[in-house]
C-alpha cells in the first residue's frame, strides 16, 4: 500500500513538472490536460484550479474559465478576483466586471490597470484619467509607454465626446499609437490642419516600426494604417473635400480590415457623403454597420449617429413606413434628442402633411424647451412655406438662444416689413438694443443695431422715433456729419429750437464746399452735357455785322417712298389723311354671316361657349383666395433639407493588443 502511494506521489509531481514546462513554453492546451489529471484525484486543489483558470484565459476560453471560478467559488475565494473581473470584461459584461473590482479585498496594481480599462469602456473618462495618471506616477516597468498611450486615448475621448477643453499633458509622440491619439484630441478641439499633419506623422512612424519586422508584408502595413487613413478621410470630409474623403474611405473598405468598429464608422461616413444620392451604394454600406460586435467597439454617440442615419436612409429610399417606425423607436430611446423628431417631420413634409409636422414639432418644443432651438427654427420654416409669416415670426421670437442675434433681428425685421407690420419690426429692434445695452454697451454689434434701427425708422417716416437712436450714435461720434444732419431733420418736426441749436455743430458752407475747377471738369474725358461757351473775339474771326446772314448748310432731303399703286396721272384722295370712319364716303362694315371662330380662343371650344362653361364666372362659385407671397430670406421645408444626415466621430487608439479597449479604430462624426 505504501509503495502504491509513493507511485501516485511521483505521478502528481511529474504532472506539475509538465504544467510548469508547458506554462513557460506557452502550450496551455497541453497544460490543461495535465491539470485535469491532477484535479481528477483532488478536485479542490486550489493551485490546480487557479492554474486551470489562467490556462483557459490564455486560450481565450473566458466563459469556461468563469464557469470554473463560479463552480469552485468557495474554494478559490478572492484568489481569482482579477481573473474573474478580466473574463467578465472580455465577455463584454463590463458592469459586472466593475462590481467585481470594486468588491475586491485589495486593489492590486493589475486590478487598477483593468479598472482603468473598464472605466474607459463605460465612458467615465474623468475617473479613468485619474486612474492612469496615478498608475504612470507610481509604476516603474516596461509598460509605461502603453499606459501613456491609454491616457492619451482618454484625453482624446474627452476632447471629442464631452466637448470640454483638455489641458496639454506633454505626452510623448514616440509611437504611432500615441501620435494617432494626439491627432484625435486635436480633431476634438477643431484644429483640423494640425491634426492631419499629426496623422501623417503617425503614418510615417507606423511604416518605420513595421518595416523593421521582416515577416510583415505590405498588405499587413496597409491593414495597420487603415485606421489612420480613415481618420484622415474624416478630416477631409470636415474640410468639405468630400471627393478626396470618399476615395480614401473606399480604399479602407476594400482592405476588409478585421476591426468591425473601423468598418462600421467608415461605412457610416460614406453614407453621410452619399446623402440622398447613390442610395444603392449606401444600402450596401449600411450592412457593415450591423456586423456582430460593433456595439462593443464604438461609444454610445457613434452608435446613436449610425441609427439616426439608418432612419434617414430609409427616408431617402422612400421606405416611409420603415422610416416612421425607426424614428419613433429612436425617439422612445432618446426622448430629449431633437433628431428623431426632425426625421419624422422630414418624412411628413415629403408626404405634404405640413400641419401634422408642425404638431409634432410643437409637442417636442413643449416637453423639451431646453433643446428646442433647432425644432423651433424648423417650425418657423414650415410656417413660412405655408405663407403664415406672422406665426413664423412669433416662433422665432420665442427662441431665447437666438432672439437677439443680428441674423435673427435681420430676418424678423425683413418678415415684418413684408407684412407691413412696422411697429413689430421696431419692437424687435428695441428689444435687441435693450439686450445689448445691458450686456455689451457701446460694442460694435450694439452700435450697428442702433444704426440699422435709426435707418429703418427714417425709411418708414418715423423720424420722431428715430431721434433717440440718432442722438446715441452722434454722441458716440460727434464728427459724424451725416448722423447729425439726420438728427436735425428729425428734430425739425418736433422741436425746432433743438434743431437750430444742433445746426450750430454743422460745419460751415465754406469748409463743406469742394474746391473744384468747373472748366477742368467739363473738359475732362467722358464729360457730357457741356455748357456752350461764348465765342472768343480774335483777329481772324471778326464779329459779323448785322444783316450779314449766316450761310446755313442745307441738308439733303430723302425722297419719300410712294405707294405701290401710285398713279402720277390720277388726283390723290383729299380725305386720305382722315381716319376711314370719318371720311364722307364711309358706309360702315358690311353685315355678313359670322365666321366660325374655330382656331381662336381656348383649344377645342368656341369663344361664346367658353364663358358659359367657366365655373369661376357663376354666382355659386366661391372667390379664389390670393396665394401667399414668398418672404425674403425664407425657404420652404422639404423632406430632404429639414434634417441633414450626420456623420460619426472617431476616437482614439490604445496600445495594449489583447485586453485594452482603448485601441479604438475609428473614423468620423456627424454634424454634431
Automatic annotation (TrEMBL):
- Where does the protein end up? Cytoplasm; Endoplasmic reticulum
Going by the UniProt record, its keywords in alphabetical order are:
Cytoplasm, Endoplasmic reticulum, Repeat, Ribonucleoprotein, Signal recognition particle, TPR repeat
UniProt cross-references to Pfam families, sorted A to Z: SNAP, SRP72, SRP_TPR_like, TPR_8
Its GO biological process annotations read: SRP-dependent cotranslational protein targeting to membrane
The positions making up the signal sequence are none
Family designation: Belongs to the SRP72 family.
Instruction: Give the protein name, as stated in the record.
Output: Signal recognition particle subunit SRP72
State the organism of origin: Tetraodon nigroviridis (Spotted green pufferfish)
Amino acid at each position: 500500500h505504501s509503495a502504491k502511494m509513493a507511485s501516485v506521489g511521483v505521478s502528481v509531481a511529474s504532472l506539475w513538472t509538465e504544467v510548469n514546462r508547458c506554462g513557460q513554453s506557452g502550450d496551455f492546451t497541453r497544460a490543461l490536460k495535465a491539470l485535469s489529471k491532477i484535479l481528477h484525484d483532488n478536485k479542490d486543489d486550489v493551485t490546480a484550479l487557479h492554474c486551470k483558470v489562467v490556462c483557459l484565459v490564455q486560450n481565450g476560453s473566458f466563459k469556461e474559465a468563469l464557469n470554473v471560478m463560479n463552480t469552485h467559488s468557495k474554494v478559490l475565494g478572492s484568489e481569482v478576483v482579477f481573473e474573474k473581473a478580466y473574463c467578465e470584461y472580455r465577455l463584454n459584461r463590463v458592469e459586472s466586471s466593475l462590481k467585481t473590482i470594486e468588491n475586491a479585498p485589495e486593489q492590486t496594481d493589475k486590478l487598477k490597470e483593468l479598472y482603468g480599462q473598464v472605466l474607459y469602456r463605460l465612458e467615465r473618462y474623468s475617473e479613468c484619467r485619474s486612474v492612469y495618471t496615478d498608475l504612470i506616477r507610481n509604476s516603474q516597468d516596461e509598460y509605461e509607454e502603453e499606459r501613456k498611450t491609454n491616457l492619451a486615448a482618454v484625453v482624446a475621448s474627452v476632447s471629442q465626446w464631452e466637448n470640454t477643453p483638455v489641458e496639454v499633458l506633454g505626452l510623448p509622440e514616440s509611437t504611432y499609437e500615441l501620435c494617432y491619439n494626439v491627432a484625435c484630441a486635436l480633431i476634438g478641439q477643431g484644429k483640423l490642419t494640425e491634426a492631419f499633419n499629426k496623422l501623417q506623422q503617425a503614418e510615417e512612424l507606423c511604416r518605420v516600426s513595421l518595416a523593421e519586422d521582416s515577416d510583415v508584408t505590405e498588405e499587413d502595413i496597409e491593414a495597420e494604417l487603415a485606421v489612420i487613413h480613415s481618420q484622415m478621410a474624416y478630416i477631409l470630409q470636415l474640410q468639405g473635400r468630400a471627393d478626396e474623403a470618399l476615395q480614401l474611405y473606399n480604399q479602407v473598405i476594400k482592405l476588409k480590415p478585421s476591426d468591425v468598429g473601423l468598418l462600421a464608422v467608415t461605412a457610416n461616413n460614406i453614407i453621410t457623403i452619399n446623402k440622398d444620392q447613390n442610395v444603392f451604394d449606401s444600402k450596401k454600406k449600411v450592412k457593415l454597420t450591423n456586423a456582430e460586435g460593433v456595439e462593443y467597439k464604438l461609444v454610445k454617440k457613434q452608435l446613436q449617429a449610425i441609427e439616426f442615419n439608418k432612419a434617414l436612409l430609409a427616408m431617402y429610399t422612400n421606405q416611409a413606413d420603415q422610416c416612421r417606425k425607426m424614428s419613433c423607436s429612436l425617439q422612445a430611446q432618446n426622448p430629449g434628442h431633437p433628431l428623431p423628431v426632425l426625421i419624422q417631420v422630414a418624412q411628413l413634409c415629403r408626404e405634404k402633411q405640413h400641419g401634422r409636422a408642425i404638431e409634432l414639432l410643437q409637442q417636442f418644443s413643449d416637453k423639451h424647451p431646453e433643446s428646442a432651438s433647432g425644432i423651433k427654427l424648423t417650425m418657423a420654416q414650415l410656417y413660412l412655406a405655408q405663407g403664415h409669416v406672422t406665426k413664423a415670426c412669433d416662433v422665432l421670437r420665442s427662441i431665447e438662444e437666438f432672439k437677439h442675434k443680428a441674423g435673427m433681428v435681420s430676418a424678423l425685421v425683413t418678415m415684418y416689413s413684408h407684412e407691413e407690420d412696422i411697429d413689430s419690426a421696431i419692437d424687435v429692434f428695441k428689444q435687441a438694443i435693450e439686450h445689448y445695452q445691458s450686456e455689451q454697451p457701446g460694442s460694435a454689434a450694439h452700435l450697428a443695431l442702433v444704426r440699422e434701427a435709426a435707418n429703418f425708422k427714417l425709411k418708414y417716416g418715423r423720424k420722431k422715433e428715430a431721434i433717440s437712436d440718432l442722438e446715441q450714435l452722434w454722441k458716440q461720434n460727434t464728427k459724424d456729419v451725416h448722423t447729425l444732419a439726420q438728427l436735425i431733420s428729425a428734430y425739425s418736426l418736433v422741436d425746432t429750437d433743438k434743431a437750430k441749436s444742433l445746426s450750430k455743430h454743422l460745419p460751415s458752407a465754406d469748409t463743406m464746399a469742394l474746391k473744384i475747377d468747373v472748366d477742368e471738369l467739363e473738359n475732362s474725358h467722358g464729360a457730357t452735357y457741356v455748357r456752350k461757351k461764348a465765342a472768343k473775339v480774335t483777329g481772324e474771326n471778326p464779329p459779323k455785322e448785322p444783316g450779314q446772314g449766316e450761310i446755313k448748310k442745307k441738308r439733303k432731303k430723302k425722297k419719300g417712298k410712294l405707294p405701290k399703286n401710285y398713279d402720277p396721272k390720277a388726283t390723290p384722295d383729299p380725305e386720305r389723311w382722315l381716319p376711314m370712319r370719318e371720311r364722307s364716303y364711309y358706309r360702315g362694315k358690311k353685315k355678313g354671316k359670322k365666321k366660325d371662330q374655330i382656331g381662336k380662343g381656348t383649344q377645342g371650344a368656341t369663344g361664346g361657349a367658353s364663358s358659359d362653361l367657366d365655373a369661376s364666372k357663376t354666382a355659386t362659385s366661391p372667390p379664389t383666395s390670393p396665394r401667399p407671397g414668398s418672404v425674403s430670406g425664407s425657404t420652404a421645408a422639404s423632406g430632404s433639407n429639414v434634417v441633414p444626415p450626420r456623420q460619426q466621430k472617431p476616437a482614439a487608439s490604445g496600445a495594449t493588443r489583447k485586453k485594452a479597449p482603448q485601441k479604438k479604430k475609428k473614423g468620423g462624426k456627424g454634424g454634431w
